[in-house]
Amino acid sequence: MSAWTKANGAGDKLLGLSDTDATFSKSIGWEKDLSGFGLGVRTARYAIVLDDLKVVYAEKEPGGDVSVSSAEAVLAKL
Q1: For 5, which of 11, 16, 25, 73 could close a Cys bridge (C-beta 3.0–4.6 Å)?
Q2: Which residue did the predictor score with more confidence, 24 or 17?
Q3: Which domain holds residue 34?
């Protein structure tokens, strides 16, 4: 995520974070159990936008499509 923000010239305007062990995702109930596929518990696909530490957008993908967490959807909320 950090490399993506740098490569796309986001500078200090965006902070891209990942949740590699799904700790945060579990705490908000947005984890996905893929143990049946040998992958364990992972983070679901979602996007959260904060402005001055206030959540202004938080959406979890409802299915297999990429819509509410797409770049277009998130940029529209900035």
Answers
A1: 16
A2: 24
A3: 16-76
